[in-house]
Amino acid sequence: MLMVDAIVAMRRRSGKFNPKRRICAPTLAQVRLAALQPILARLHYGGNPEHKRNPGDFGLNPPCQPRPSKTLCDQVKIFTRTEAISLLREGLLRGVFSVQERNGWPQNVWSVTKSGEPLEAQLEGDGVYHGYPMPADDPFREEVIQRWNSK
Hints:
Layout lengths: L1 H12 L12 H11 L7 E2 L35 H13 L7 E2 L2 E2 L1 E5 L5 E8 L2 E6 L7 H9 L2
Parallel strand pairs: 1-6
Antiparallel strand pairs: 2-3, 4-5, 5-6
């Protein structure tokens, strides 16, 4: 069993992407968004130091710790928590979030910057997300951009 776990871990590290990601259908997204309205005030952006070269006002601990294999928010000019939460909130309001959820919150929320860069946010805890630019070789990028532009 340990050999199988090692192979799965290697695949994840070698740039494979989660094939189970699915954007919620528009009609279901409206229903889920209505259910989220009472708790939307708890939406928070936690950040992750692995996706930052410059910590900006994210209040991360450690302040920044970029890893070579991670995409950086700095590359798409996201330097403030306000900007990050705005993009996260817009992704939710447009219904560009995952079918998967935990405790009523979508597991993933996607958005696109004004310059056309797709972003992915992952749920960390109750309404708290961290996000990052989607890698150029992620085939799911195109689906995110297409859905974003359909609104």
